[in-house]
Amino acid sequence: MNLHSFLDVLEAQYPAIIEGDQSYNSIQLDLLIIDEDKRKMGYGTAIMEKIIAFADLQGVPIELTPSKQFGGNIRKLRKFYKRLGFVKNKNRYYALIRPCNRHY
Asked: Quick check: 97 and 87 in contact, CB under 8 A?
């Protein structure tokens, strides 16, 4: 299954809008918006855990940049992503990266 099909499945399962792209060496998560009335209910964590598992199976890291554009708080978003294993992505377009944790 490719990333776009995978994200479509997640959007059908969760109250969210998710957009991303995949190159040969990473997944770029461009948008993850949880419906405003469904925030703080664990949907973001559940979605990210599935995206992380998908990326690990593909053997690629995930890159993203938290944004306040859709009502998010940058400080809280950075803390959220840090709990999921994201670190600063030095010298890159995307601010954060989660290295691949593929285990054979």
From this structure: yes
Contact status, residue 64 vs residue 48, Cβ threshold 8 Å: no
- Alpha carbon 64 to chain centroid, angstroms: 7
Looking up tokens 């969210």 gives 16
CA distance 40 to 95: 23
Q: Which domains does the chain have, with CATH numbers?
A: 3-98 (3.40.630.30)
Instruction: Give the tens place of pLDDT for each residue, 16-41.
Output: 999 999 988 999 999 999 998 998 99
Distance CA 76, CA 47 (A): 17
